[in-house]
Specification:
The complex is a heterodimer of chains A (278) and B (254).
Chain A lengths: L1 E10 L7 E8 L4 E5 L6 H9 L1 H4 L3 E9 L2 E2 L5 H5 L2 E4 L12 H11 L4 H15 L14 H13 L5 E5 L7 H16 L3 E5 L3 H7 L2 E6 L2 E7 H5 L2 H7 L5 H11 L11 H11 L2
Parallel strand pairs in A: 3-8, 3-9, 6-7, 7-8
Antiparallel strand pairs in A: 1-2, 1-4, 4-5, 9-10
Helix pairs in contact in A: 4-6, 5-6
Chain B lengths: L12 H4 L2 H17 L3 H17 L3 H25 L5 E5 L2 E4 H26 L3 H10 L5 H30 L9 H31 L19 H20 L2
Antiparallel strand pairs in B: 1-2
Helix pairs in contact in B: 2-5, 2-9, 3-4, 3-5, 4-5, 6-7, 7-8
The chains are: A alpha/beta (278), B mainly alpha (254).
């Protein structure tokens, strides 16, 4: 469980708080999608979970953040890393090895995973992401999307309780993006808590269980996907484009053609269309 | 140096050698090149380097390395020829003598440069950096942090090269003409472009530091290394060859 209590943070070089008075709980097994405009504080939120804030980026830290009962101020990032796996936005900057297999081994060796488990973990992680054929490939020869998958596989191999991802599909095509989120959903079903920053809100609506909207360092909306999408007017005020199906629902509701709640999946969208068509 | 220092996957005898052997034999060839004063021996070493490249399936990389070094070789040859005034002059102009001794010395310097540079670069093309790092940490007890620093620095060469290429393309797209033969003008054009590269490099390095910290870098122990390379008969033969080369270099100088 991740708990933010009266949390605010200002970077040492910052003039304003990057995050302001955050109070929320992410329960075990949640799949939280974080949305917001550029500079809203989404990445800082992920840094607060994995301990980069305040251990790497110094600044004024107020309140408390606890991850599985560990206070992120008192615990070192490597202690938190046992619980939280992180995938960053800049995929090149997180690669340490020259080959795919070595990239996966890096974390496993560091955390002292017993040698008799390592082979199985590497094989399984590569299979789950669907990149077993890339195992012996040079990382430099891979596309951005393939590297992104390797980065996710490297974290999967560590089997953390919580996975934090900062725009994991930034360099992926739509099909690969769906593949990554399907996998994250599957992991989530098995009990892994997922926290993902994502610009593609439509993708989050299909896979996440909760949405967190951050704007100018403040939590504006937090709740189930349906609860947040019901606040579509507020989202649009902030400058977040809601999925087209939600805009359509809003329009149909205004015209009095439907009374159902905003659809969050294909089945509900189909039901809405049927209702609108009488 | 992109493509030249990159690891080339393979399963040749050179790929299978222990990284320590490859490092040692590279150093031995370098030492032999610096000891020897025999033109034939130095040419032989160059041929041996190319033979190694052929065996390791990295001939293309070796030729590219030679091509890359050719400019430095020409520059060094000219400097040596102009500054060494000993020996019988072939001809003179504006008080500078081009002598037989100067030409021979310049020629030998170039041969040594090639003989000493090629083995280390070839070693990198047939050795996975992780294997090298593991071998140095486990067998030679090099602190992991140092081994990691070296391998990361090598790993980042192509990354920074890509960044530089992207910056160059962006500048060309904005109408900056980099197509000039004037070296001073070229340097003047390159300086402003190196600023964004520096910024992105610092940013990437910082991200890398964070990423490795979050993947347990500080928890690493020597015992946790999974793949530990070991020496075999081929390694002993390679080291023997290195020792023979040094001995031959010494004996031929007599």
């Amino acid at each position: 469980m991740i708990e933010f209590k009266d949390f605010s943070f200002r970077y040492a070089s910052g003039k304003a708080n990057a995050l302001q008075n955050v109070n929320l709980t992410i329960d075990d097994g949640d799949f939280v999608g974080i949305i917001g405009n550029s500079g809203a504080g989404k990445t800082t939120f992920t840094y607060a979970v994995n301990g980069i804030v305040p251990h790497h980026y110094k600044g004024d830290f107020y309140g408390a953040v606890t991850v599985n009962g560990l206070d992120t101020v008192d615990s070192k990032p490597e202690q938190l890393a046992v619980h939280v796996g992180s995938v960053f936005q800049d995929v090149d900057a997180q690669m340490v090895a020259s080959m795919v297999e070595d990239e996966l081994l890096f974390g496993l060796e560091n955390f002292g995973i017993p040698h008799d488990q390592i082979e199985q973990r590497v094989t399984e992680a590569l299979e789950e992401i669907g990149i077993s054929d890339l195992r012996m490939r040079d990382l430099d020869s891979l596309s951005g999307g393939q590297k992104q998958k390797v980065a996710v596989a490297a974290i999967l191999a560590l089997r953390p309780d919580i996975i934090v991802l900062d725009e994991p599909t930034g360099e992926l095509d739509p099909q690969s993006s769906e593949q990554i989120y399907s996998l994250l959903q599957e992991l989530n079903r098995r009990g892994t808590t997922i926290v993902a920053v994502e610009q593609k809100i439509g993708l989050l609506c299909r896979y996440a269980t909760k949405l967190l909207l951050i704007d100018k360092g403040c939590v504006m909306l937090y709740g189930t996907v349906r609860e947040v999408l019901q606040q579509s007017s507020r989202m649009e005020e902030i400058g977040i484009h809601v999925p087209r199906i939600v805009s359509l629902h809003k329009e149909l509701t205004r015209m009095g053609l439907v009374r159902c709640p905003a659809p969050v999946n294909m089945d509900e969208a189909e039901a809405m269309a049927k209702e609108a068509l009488g | 140096m992109r493509g030249v220092l990159d690891y080339v996957p393979g399963n040749t005898i050179l790929h299978r050698l222990d990284p320590r052997t490859k490092l040692l034999i590279s150093l031995m060839i370098c030492i032999a090149a610096f000891i020897s004063d025999s033109e034939i021996f130095l040419l032989g070493l160059l041929a041996l380097n190319l033979l190694f490249a052929f065996i390791g399936g990295v001939t293309a990389q070796a030729l590219r390395m030679l091509k890359g070094l050719s400019k430095a070789c020409v520059f060094m040859f000219i400097l040596q020829v102009l500054f060494i005034q000993q020996g019988e002059p072939y001809f003179s102009f504006i008080g500078i003598h081009i002598t037989d001794y100067g030409v021979r010395t310049a020629y030998m310097v170039i041969l040594r440069l090639l003989d000493a540079t090629l083995p280390l670069s070839l070693m990198l093309t047939v050795t996975r950096l992780t294997d090298l790092s593991n071998a140095l940490v486990v067998h030679w007890h090099l602190p992991y942090q140092y081994a990691f620093t070296v391998t990361t620095a090598l790993h980042f060469i192509p990354v920074f090269f890509n960044d530089m290429q992207a910056i160059t393309e962006a500048q060309i797209a904005r109408g900056v003409s980099l197509d000039t033969r004037n070296p001073i003008k070229k340097i003047k054009l390159m300086i402003p472009m190196s600023v964004p590269l520096l910024v992105s490099s610092v940013k990437k390095t910082e991200q890398e530091a964070i990423a490795v910290e979050l993947r347990g870098f500080n928890l690493r122990t020597r015992a946790s290394t999974y793949k530990v390379p070991h020496m075999h008969a081929a390694d002993a033969a390679a080291l023997l060859l290195g020792a023979v080369l040094i001995a031959a270099a010494v004996l031929l100088n007599r």
